[in-house]
Amino acid sequence: MSKKPGRRLLGQNRMLWLLDALERDPGRDQLIDMLGRRVRALPLGRVRDVLHGTWLGHPVHPMSIHLPIGSWMSAAVLDLKPGRSRQADLLVALGLAGAAPAALSGLVDWAELRREQQRVGLVHAWANTAAVGLYGASLVMRLSGKGAKGRALGYLGLTAVGAGGLLGGHLAYRQAAGANHAEEVPHVVRDGWHRVGGLDEFPVGEAVRCVVDDVPVLVVRESGGEVHALAERCSHLAGPLSEGTVADGCVRCPWHGSVFRLSDGWNVGGPATAPQPAFDTRVVDGSVEVRLPLHEVPEAPYGSDALTETSVDGHRPSR
């Protein structure tokens, strides 16, 4: 009698199988919930959005890790050559100084991820914490005159950094943590105007979900007659904006609280680092139509009426 196939698919990479298993393992979920609450409760104020990278247009964390990793890698190379201990010691210390802001930016991002991403991210953080501990011990040994032990601890720390980098790559490229989940919208929706419904189908001040070329679109009609349309899936983690809160000319994602301006999709509050694709709108014979902006036509200066104003009958001025 033949054996039943195991859980690991034939030919599947063992490392990927282990990482997929890590995503599905609920054993650390209580710890994740507790840590997530504490990170979200940190009194960071506007610094939180700075750490997310809303000002940069993408997450800060991948950029901030270059200082510690680069410093430690350089120290490892210098440790191979005699007479370079002072320079290597300085690089180890520099890496430790850069690890703190990198860890903080990673934590605020991690607290706003999906559960499967948080499971991998937690182990990613453990690996990097181990690396910091090993490099801290390495620096102590180096400054105490025990260079051989310091170098050995440094190489162990670099190994931990490599393991953390593997998990970070899985988060970014396999699980799409930090990616713009609305990037494909301009490439999927066809050019031209698309009818999304009659004007009376859009109650004033309410978020309504429509579909254009299989792409969900959020439509909001304001009291002054203006009609706004954005890609409906949040750029942060594809949360349903149509289930969010509309207030003060913005919509707030119900999943992680990202705030987007209805007039142009700009992300005025994180954790989203990318704006929502915004559509031009018009009302023709009582029907609301939307289209992607014509980027080849020069836009009006920022803040001008031509960019945001909608005429009384609901038509947006020609561009």
How is this structure best described in words?
Residues 193-290 form the Rieske domain. Keywords: 2Fe-2S, Iron, Iron-sulfur, Membrane, Metal-binding, Transmembrane, Transmembrane helix. Residues 299-319 are annotated as: Disordered. The chain crosses the membrane at residues 90-111, 123-141, 153-173. This is Rieske (2Fe-2S) protein. By secondary structure, this protein is α+β, with helices and mostly antiparallel strands. It has helices at residues 14-24, 29-40, 47-52, 61-64, 66-78, 85-110, 115-143, 147-174, 185-188, 305-308; strands at 194-198, 207-212, 215-221, 227-231, 245-247, 250-252, 259-261, 267-269, 278-284, 287-291. The strands form 2 sheets. The chain has a 6-stranded antiparallel beta sheet, with no helix packed on it. A 4-stranded antiparallel beta sheet has the order 5-6-7-8, with no helix packed on it. The radius of gyration is 25 Å and the shape is elongated. Residues 1-6 and 296-319 have low confidence and may be disordered.
Write the layout of secondary structure elements.
Elements: H1 14-24, H2 29-40, H3 47-52, H4 61-64, H5 66-78, H6 85-110, H7 115-143, H8 147-174, H9 185-188, E1 194-198, E2 207-212, E3 215-221, E4 227-231, E5 245-247, E6 250-252, E7 259-261, E8 267-269, E9 278-284, E10 287-291, H10 305-308
Helix pairs in contact: 1-7, 5-6, 5-8, 6-7, 7-8
InterPro entries: DUF2231_TM (IPR019251), Rieske_2Fe-2S (IPR017941), Rieske_2Fe-2S_sf (IPR036922)
Region (Disordered): 299-319
Transmembrane segments: 90-111, 123-141, 153-173
